[in-house]
Amino acid sequence: MTPFQVVLGVLVGFLAGIGSGLFGVGGGIVTTPAVNVLLGGTAIEAIATPLPVIFPTSLVGAWTYWRAGELSLRAAGWAALAGIPGAILGALSTEYVNAHLLLFATAVLLAWTAVQVIRGRQPRVPWEKGATPGWKYAGVGAVAGYVSGLLGVGGGIVMVPAFTVLIGMPLKRALGTSLVTIAALVVPGTLVHWWLGNIDWAIFLVLVAGVVPGARIGARIALGTQERSLRLTVGLFLLAIALLYGARELGALLQARG
After folding, report:
1. pLDDT digits over 175-227, tens only?
2. Are 48 and 193 in contact (CB under 8 A)?
3. How many structural domains comprise the chain?
4. Which domain holds residue 36?
5. Nearest to 82 by CA among 189, 191, 184
6. HSE on the CB side for 1, CA within 13 Å?
7. CA distance 66 to 238
8. How many Cα atoms sit within 13 Å of 172 on the Cβ side?
């Protein structure tokens, strides 16, 4: 890596970390294209290298939420318990599942839940600490894990709206819980890609130098934001991701048919 790429990598990591802490996601949405386009990584390194970066990013953000009392270890435990085998299954499914079709369907669902987040929709049964059955968290974790393993993302784009809209968890607690669960979900993929030699550890170190302080800043911004404003910000972010993915994958599907 050139000195310019090192500086650029730290900046990319910093921005990804802020997004991770603020929106409860892993940050791969930013780091994956950056590794390939800006930092000189190959296509497979762009998929693999962000995975170990997500681990410290998520833990730093989750720790910040935990210190503020906005993290449910019980929910995270159930979600991770089902999410880890889901991630393995998702990774194994990459050769058999039409990822474009699945991602388009995910984008449609994400767009709907993003609108519900913005509206502040709550489920019929109000959320209470310790009262939600563990299987509900496990169901969310299983789906998020599968999507994570199949698409190489952290899974937060699934967990945050699901925890908030379907289960009724307060948004800040959902963000913190999503982050600590993501840290567990990326472990299987990281180990596999490490064994295959697909991770560029130099790029990893450069990105981590930026994501660690960025994740803490992003989480602190979210914690200091009023619930309504945070819902609007997170909802618009998720909606933008849904529209971007949906348009891209619909184009890929139409091109394949033509």
Report:
1. 999 999 998 888 887 888 888 888 899 999 999 999 999 999 999 999 998 88
2. yes
3. 1
4. 3-257
5. 184
6. 24
7. 23
8. 21
